[in-house]
Amino acid sequence: MIRKTSTNLLLGILAAGLVTVPCYGSATQQKITESQNAQKKSQEELSSTQSAIQSLEAKKGDLESYLTELNKQLTDLGNNLQEIETRSEEKQEELTQLEGELADAQAREEEQYESMKLRIQYMYENSAESYVQILLESKSMADFLEQAENISQMTQYDRKMLSEYKETTEEIQAKEASIQKEQAELEKLKQESLDKQDEISALVKSTHGQIEDYESQITQQESVEQSLLTQIAAQEDNINALIKKQKDEEAAAALAQQQAAAQEAAEREAAAQAAASAAQTQQTQQTAAQTQSTVPQEEAAVQTEASDTGSSNGNTYLGNFRITAYCAGSCCGGHSSGMTASGTAPQEGRTVAMGGVPFGTKLMINGTVYTVEDRGVPYGHVDIYFTNHQDALNFGTMMADVYQVN
After folding, report:
1. How do residues 59-107 score in pLDDT, each as one tens digit?
2. How many helices, marked H, and strands, marked E, lie in the chain?
3. Cβ count near 146 (within 10 Å)
4. What's the CA gap between 144 and 142, in Å, rounded?
5. What CA–CA distance (Å, rounded) separates 123 from 151?
6. How far apart are the first and last CA of the chain?
7. What are 226-270's pLDDT values in tens digits?
8. Other Cβ atoms closer than 10 A to 164
């Protein structure tokens, strides 16, 4: 009977442990909900701010590309202007040379013309005497005709040279006019190039101003982004602290409930034994006394077992946590460096991730002791590291009692 009673007592304690723990700390849960809503709002503001930064960066990039194109146009215009200056100098040299040639031709023309006028005047004034003298001095009629022909050819030569000089002069003047026209066109091109340079320089200045404005806006948004990141981190810490408080309250409530159930079972057992003792005869008093001496030992064992729920081998019971698994790959959100958030190299069977507790905190889960070396999940959710991604997938999700190793 004693054994049966003890068995019933143990079954009662286990049943009490299996009863669903009611929701304690509604005030804490409300604070958690409020903090999560505030964090969600901060996350939305952060997302909006980051989108604004990306938009500003894109606009700034477009303007920088445009500025590069404007600077290229300025360089091309500078090269073109230099080419125009070179051509203008060459035309000026040609014009100076033509002006010299024109002056020489005009001088030769004037000299030839004056010489021809003198010969004509002389021949006109002395034509009769000259021909008589030529006739008298000629040795024959052929000699006379030859001398007369020479005079005629000299006159024709003067006329021809005068005509050639005039043609040369006209040609030089035509070239001079052409060069002057080209110079005027070059000056026009030069002015157009200078005007275009002024226009593009104004655009460059304006674009620089717009880029500086975008840079200022980006700096302001980055400051807002950093402030929001700090705020979100603080909210995350606060949420983890509240969840830890809630888990601690649930663990304490569960422990109190189990202790109350154990106490109630012990009281029922004591009452039953007292009633049985009163009904027994004088002959069974010795047996009842032996039974009474055994009960306290069993009660002590029961009390010890109940208290072990709150502290397993001296460890602190944290609560019934959600347990998942991850690997170091990008598929599970691992860091590109392959290191944990604490800076250690992750190791299967040792490394877990959870917020709300310091790095290095040791957690016992299903008899295995792990070390908190990573982040990524809130308090109340333990992520166990696996080297292989498939092993992490196969692990799945479970709920388990978690103890902090003291």
Report:
1. 999 999 999 999 998 889 888 888 888 888 887 888 788 777 777 777 7
2. 6, 6
3. 12
4. 5
5. 9
6. 41
7. 999 999 999 988 998 898 888 888 888 888 888 888 888 888 888
8. 14
Q: For 35, how many CA atoms within 13 A lie in the half-sphere containing its CB?
A: 19
* Rounded Cα gap, residues 22 and 67, in angstroms: 67
Residue type, 330: S
- Look-up: residue for tokens 């002590």? 300
Q: How far apart are CA 400 and CA 8, in angstroms?
A: 26
Rg (CA), the chain: 58
- The b/e string for 205-243 (b: 16+ C-beta within 10 A; e otherwise) is eebeeebeebeebbeebeebbeebeeebeebbebbbbbb
Q: Cβ distance 353 to 383 under 8 Å?
A: yes
Distance between CA atoms of residues 378 and 356, nearest Å: 7
Note the pLDDT tens digit of each residue in 381-398.
999 999 999 999 999 999
Whether the full predicted model's pTM is greater than 0.85, yes or no, is no
257: enclosing H helix or E strand: helix 141-279
Whole-angstrom Cα distance, residue 22 to residue 253?
9
**Average pLDDT, rounded, for the chain:** 78
Residue 171: phi and psi, rounded to 5, are -65, -45
**How is residue 225 written in tokens?**
């982004």
Rounded CA gap, 16 and 317, in Å? 17
SS3 145: helix
Residues 6 or more apart in contact with residue 317 via CB below 8 angstroms: 251, 255, 309, 310, 311, 401, 402, 403
- 57's tokens: 């960066």
Please give the Cα distance from 278 to 40 (Å, whole number). 67
The two tokens of residue 65 are: 């590309």
Among residues 122, 105, 118, the alpha carbon closest in space to that of 161 is found at: 105
Rounded to the nearest 5°, which phi and psi values hold at 225? -60, -45
